[in-house]
Amino acid sequence: MADRASEIVAEAVFVALADPNRRAILAALAENGPATATDLATRLPITRQGIAKHLTLLAEAGLVAAEPGERRRVRYHLQSAPMRVAQQFLAALARDWDGPLAALRSHLDDASGS
Question: pLDDT, tens digit, for every residue of 17-60?
Fold first, then answer.
C-alpha cells in the first residue's frame, strides 16, 4: 500500500484529527489564518492552556507550524503536506478495497439472482 514513512505521517494525522478540539483549532486556523494560542482561546470554548497542549500535538503531527512573532508571541499556521500524505494513504486503502468489494457485490448479485 504505502511506504512506512507515509504510514507514520498518516497515523499522526489521524491521531491528531481524532479529537474534536484539535479539529476545531485547525478549522479556526483555516478560516482565519495564522493565530496565537491566545487568539484561538478567544474564538473557541477551550482554555489557553488547553489550546497550547493541542497545538503541541498538532505541531508534532506536522499539521501546524510555529512562527515566532513580536514580543515572544508565537503564531501558528497550517501545514498541508501531512494532510496530503494522509489523503494519499486513504486513497490507496480505498483502491485496495475496491476489487474485493466489487467481487463480493458481484457474488451477492449472482447469488440473489438464482
Answer: 999 999 999 999 999 999 999 999 999 999 999 999 999 999 99
pLDDT reported for residue 2: 60
Residue identified by cell 507515509 is 6
Across 70-79, average pLDDT: 90
CATH of the domain at 99: 1.10.10.10
The answer to whether 13 touches 58, Cβ cutoff 8 Å, is no
Domain ranges, residue 102 = 4-113
Distances (CA, A) of 87 to 28, 47, 66, 108, 114: 21, 30, 23, 30, 40
CA angle 9, 13, 18 (to 5 degrees): 150
Domain count within the chain: 1
